[in-house]
Design goal:
mainly alpha, 2 domains, two-stranded antiparallel ribbon, 18 helices
Length: 377
């Protein structure tokens, strides 16, 4: 049962913490004399008048309400529907702001995650993104990612109690995908973007297991990381920051989330190249290029010390544990493979894997051996 917030102890406490300025459910900006607030009569949702008009003029809006997808008026699309779109009453009962943390907590529930990746929204989103990727379609722009998200959302059979519950949770996020330039980048758009990168290294019949989904969603539980997006420099710097902090006696922060995600990316890439007897530096480079995360950002990225250390550490971290295979015999390897450890243990395992890899990689970099590792020849 969800824990309710305590009742404020006084009027002063209520005025300080119990109210906040209303904001538009579409662009998430507060209202003013130019940003005029309106309320729909049928489903009583509040939003900006101009934002609603902009939404409804888009073909993909299908004449529906942004938060609940109830039908305002008939369009060529809605006329062809065999049944009306179910209205999601009370779609945002607590008035929460759709954030990265909330989506991570929601899908952090194992039962919710399993339902979603089997028959729910996450399954539909992955299927749509993978199909576009296999067809060679470019799907990295926010408008196209938005189309993937809305298509997945509209596939939910909202008469099913489980999918209706997921639809209720997702409803406040959907309008944000339409306005990437006026609102903070929606966590669903970021999620679709990372799935797009994953799809580039997967086979056409690949379905991410629960542990991979968990790694992806863990990455999105830190808005400071997620707002940057998955990038080569962010990934490399995560390893360097973790290692440098360790040498100075500092505790790692959120770097392990980047590195856990990349461990699984290496596992998926290797699984799709069964001819690899081992995973070497020459194999990490094409993986980074295939992901489309900005590697190399400049020519010297191929040979500079930071890159050399990361490439070597990645190979050592992966081969020492063989995440994604059954070869790892250590308890740590099994925990990383199964993904069922508590958050503190998982963080400790990921950090220890990479710190060992960085230490071993640093030794190889120090002796510069063998040179063909770095040159790629």
């Amino acid at each position: 049962m969800a824990q309710q917030n305590p009742v404020p102890g006084s009027l002063k406490d209520f005025l300080a913490d119990g109210i906040e300025a209303a904001e538009c459910t579409i662009c998430t900006e507060p209202f003013d004399n130019e940003h005029v607030v309106i309320q729909t009569k049928e489903c009583v949702h509040v939003m900006g008048k101009l934002c609603l008009e902009k939404w409804l003029r888009q073909n993909k809006s299908q004449g529906t309400c942004p938060p609940c997808r109830g039908v305002f008026f008939k369009t060529e699309t809605t006329k062809k529907k065999t049944r009306p779109i179910p209205r999601l009453e009370n779609t945002n009962p607590s008035g929460f702001s759709p954030t990265f943390e909330r989506s991570s907590i929601y899908y952090g529930n194992r039962a919710v995650l399993e339902r979603s990746i089997q028959t729910g929204f996450l399954n539909e989103l992955w299927t749509g993104v993978l199909a576009r990727s296999m067809n060679g379609e470019g799907i990295v722009s926010p408008p196209v990612l938005s189309a993937c998200i809305v298509a997945a959302y509209d596939q939910l059979h909202l008469h099913s109690p489980d999918e209706r519950s997921e639809g209720v949770f997702l409803a406040p996020y959907i309008p944000r995908t339409y306005f990437p330039t006026t609102a903070p980048l929606c966590s669903l758009t970021q999620l679709a973007g990372v799935l797009c990168k994953f799809s580039k290294i997967c086979g056409e019949n690949y379905t991410p297991p629960k542990t991979v989904w968990s790694a992806i969603l863990l990455f999105f539980s830190r808005p400071a990381d997620s707002n940057v997006g998955l990038s080569w420099t962010g990934l490399r710097d995560a390893a360097w920051t973790l290692y440098g902090g360790h040498l100075e006696g500092k505790v790692g922060a959120s770097q392990w989330r980047w590195l856990y995600l990349f461990l699984w990316m290496m596992a998926i890439y290797r699984a799709n190249h069964p001819n690899y007897h081992s995973f070497e530096i020459q194999d990490v480079r094409p993986l980074l290029r295939a992901l489309g995360i900005g590697y190399p950002s400049e020519a010297r990225d191929e040979t500079d010390t930071n890159t050399r250390l990361f490439l070597s550490a990645a190979v050592q971290a992966f081969e020492r544990n063989r995440i994604g295979t059954n070869h790892g015999q250590l308890d740590r390897a099994r925990r990383l493979l199964q993904g069922d450890a508590d958050m503190g243990q998982l963080k400790k395992d990921v950090e220890s894997v990479w710190l060992e890899g960085m230490a071993k990689g640093a030794a190889y970099v120090a002796i510069g051996y063998p040179e063909y590792w770095w040159s790629g020849d």
